[in-house]
Amino acid sequence: MKRLTTILALMLTFVFCAGVANAGKLEEIKERGKLICGVKDSVNLFGFIDPDTKELTGFDVDICKEIGKKLGVPVEFKVVSSATRIPMLAQGSVDMLAATMTHKHSRDEKIDFSITYFMDGQKLLVKKGSGINSTDDLTNQKVGTVKGSTSEKNMKNANPKSRVIAYDEYPQAFMALKQGKVKAVTTDSGILAGLKAGDDNPENWEIVGEFFSLEPYGLGVPENDSAFRDFVNKSLQQMWLDGTYATLFKKWMGYDLPNTWKMEIWPM
Ligand code: GLU
């Protein structure tokens, strides 16, 4: 009898441990009582510190809050950069990334992505009247962007003769433009719009040229956790269908959601 009890106890321990090891993000977040979301803190409109409240705010921050609401838990934010976001998610220090991150096949090796939740492309931000209208005009010229971004690689591909300087964050690249150290800043047009809008003299700057890349943003989610990924995808689609997405888009971008891109929607 004693032996049977011991065996039963061992079996239960095994089942319990296996359960814990396999527990997915959904269970982990609910047990912990909060969703830990990685966001930017210096990207105006997407993830930045509100100068009045000193709180993190922006489109990506609101997307995290909506997903937190659907999970029934509050959100804790951790600041990520373009270079640190994928390692931070892969190591488990955040549950999810909402960080102006383009879904690229090469980024799929260590993490998974949600469906596209924002569509953009790359352009140039220059001083008004600079005469720079396209990537061709940047031959032998310095252009600023950010380390670990798609923007760095895309610019080198678009004009291999440009001299790309990668900073840690976009405001540093913009500062270099203001100081005349670079001739342009290049990244996704929404981020450029945020830099321009956040300046004391926005009329001094212009966003020029055609889009020279496609930047479909995906939320970063842990590798191989389909229950969590399904939940995140369903949440995004619900936000699209009930109008929350359009409200957030208008709130941050300042104009109505254009019909040039639509979120992928799956029937129930
Ligand atoms: N969306 C691009 C990327 O994921 C550029 C913006 C960024 O650096 O986050 O690399």
- Report the average pLDDT across residues: 93
CATH architecture of the largest domain, by name, is: 3-Layer(aba) Sandwich
* Number of separate strands: 13
Bound compounds: glutamic acid
Structural class, judged by helices and strands? alpha/beta
Biggest sheet statistics: 5 strands, mixed
SS field, number of helical segments: 9
Q: Note the overall shape.
A: globular
Spatial order of strands in the largest sheet: 10-9-11-8-12
**Head-to-tail CA distance between termini:** 52 Å
Radius of gyration: 22 Å
Strand content: 15-25%
Written as H for each helix and E for each strand, in order along the chain, the element string is HHEEEEHEHEEEEHEHEHEEHH
Number of domains: 2
Can you tell me the residue ranges where pLDDT is under 50 for at least 5 consecutive residues?
12-21
Percent helix? 25-40%
Concise structural overview:
The protein is α/β, with parallel strands linked by helices and 268 residues long. The chain has helices at 2-22, 25-32, 59-71, 85-90, 150-158, 170-178, 189-197, 226-241, 244-253; strands at residues 35-39, 42-43, 47-49, 56-57, 75-79, 96-97, 111-120, 122-127, 142-146, 163-167, 184-188, 205-208, 215-222.
